[in-house]
TrEMBL record:
Full protein name: DUF4179 domain-containing protein
Keyword Transmembrane helix: yes
Gene3D superfamilies (UniProt xref): bacillus anthracis domain
All copies of domain DUF5643, residue ranges: 258-360
């Protein structure tokens, strides 16, 4: 859809529902329309300016849609607005600094792979691989009777029970150059590479992530720098699985450090074995150890956070671990990249408190703000200089 058609649809929708806009929303809408009109009318500007105004116009339209959809609108109008195109790609709108960086740095590829069954099409939209994680996005299009809005997740029914709507992802498995993931674990079933997915900003999209297990300190097989991923997806209510082919190629030169820093405190020890960072991912290999007479529950619930020198905690994207002995655990931790290159990172160990202390597993106890209660393990803190 070009900018003129987009502007026209927006103006018609506004005109049709003028009487229903609250004063505050009307003020915001008129301000955005004024900016949009100025941009579009500047057709006689220099060539350089003409190149950038469509993107600016689209951003203005997207802001307008965001404001409008947060107001109380008639269902018909809200649904009509939802059909208009959004700005940017799935990665660009993800809550993941690494994927946003991949978009802005021009590192993503377009797999150009799709599959259709019963009028429903799944397509692989974007992909990026930095040697640590392969991320790719999938979009669902098409119509089918009874099809739900979501591509991922579960829905709460009228009876309070969870169920999957028709058209949501019910299963997914992958092959790397025709080889199953079990081959990369080299006999260690607990180290099979992990495939996960979450919903994108739009209900009909999903973002997948695949991480190898080469950082767990055991003899596993890393992913090659270039391969073809075969993705088989099952959708609820669709008989045939969807098969997509996603070429992956490492697109970053990562910085790797092996500091071997070890700290000890009160029967605990923590070692930073390896640190690797790219524009997409920060990856740490850790070893946590506890004396035999220590608090086993705390050992099992121990987690880690990574913080830069400004006190900004890097959002964790993936964590896996494997026991090397009864009280020794190798941990592979992936976080988002740091927005601004720091001089130092701090790794802290903590354990969460369970809501029901009598149970071995379950919900975490939360504070008044709804955040999980953290008990930092005194002395288990590593400061490491960043190259």
């Amino acid at each position: 859809m070009n900018n003129e058609n987009l502007e026209k649809q927006l103006r018609e929708l506004r005109k049709a529902n003028t009487q229903e806009l609250p004063p505050l929303l009307r003020t915001r809408q008129d301000s955005i329309y004024a900016s949009l009109a100025t941009i579009v009318q500047d057709s006689g500007a220099k060539k350089k300016k003409r190149k950038i105004y469509p993107k600016i116009a689209a951003v203005a339209a997207a802001i307008l849609l965001s404001v409008m959809l947060t107001a109380i609108y008639p269902p018909a109008l809200a649904n009509a607005l939802k059909q208009l195109p959004w700005v940017g790609g799935i990665f660009e709108r993800a809550d993941d600094l690494g994927l946003q960086a991949a978009q802005s740095l021009g590192l993503i590829s377009r797999p150009n792979s799709s599959d259709t069954h019963e009028g429903i099409t799944l397509s692989a939209e974007e992909a990026v691989f930095d040697g640590n994680r392969l991320a790719f996005s999938v979009k669902r299009e098409g119509e089918k009777e009874g099809l739900g809005d979501k591509l991922t997740g579960v829905t709460v029914g009228p009876d309070g029970k969870l169920f999957q709507e028709k058209g949501t992802i019910s299963s997914a498995k992958v092959l790397i150059d025709g080889v199953p993931l079990e081959e990369f674990a080299v006999g260690h079933w607990e180290a099979i590479p992990y495939l996960s997915w979450i919903g994108g900003k739009e209900d009909n999209t999903a973002i997948f992530e695949l991480v190898d297990s080469s950082n767990l300190g055991i003899s596993t097989k890393p992913f090659p720098d270039q391969f073809v991923l075969t993705l088989t997806i099952g959708l609820e209510g669709i008989d045939e699985p969807f098969i997509l082919q996603i070429p992956a190629r490492r697109v970053t030169e990562n910085i790797i450090d092996t500091p071997g820093i070890r700290v000890q405190a009160d029967g605990w020890s923590l070692t930073l074995q390896r640190l690797e960072y790219s524009p997409l991912t920060t990856r740490l290999s850790l070893t946590l150890e506890q004396d035999a007479d220590g608090n086993r529950r705390a050992f099992e619930l121990t987690d880690f956070e990574v913080m830069d020198e400004q006190g900004q905690i890097l959002e964790s994207t993936h964590q896996s671990g494997i026991l090397s002995s009864d009280r020794s655990r190798n941990v592979d931790l992936l976080t988002e990249p740091f927005g601004k290159h720091p001089n130092m990172l701090t790794i802290r160990a903590y354990y969460n408190e369970l809501k029901d202390p009598k149970k071995k597993y379950g919900l975490y106890k939360t504070d008044s703000s709804g955040n999980a209660v953290k008990h930092y393990i005194k002395g288990l803190e590593i400061n490491v200089l960043v190259q």
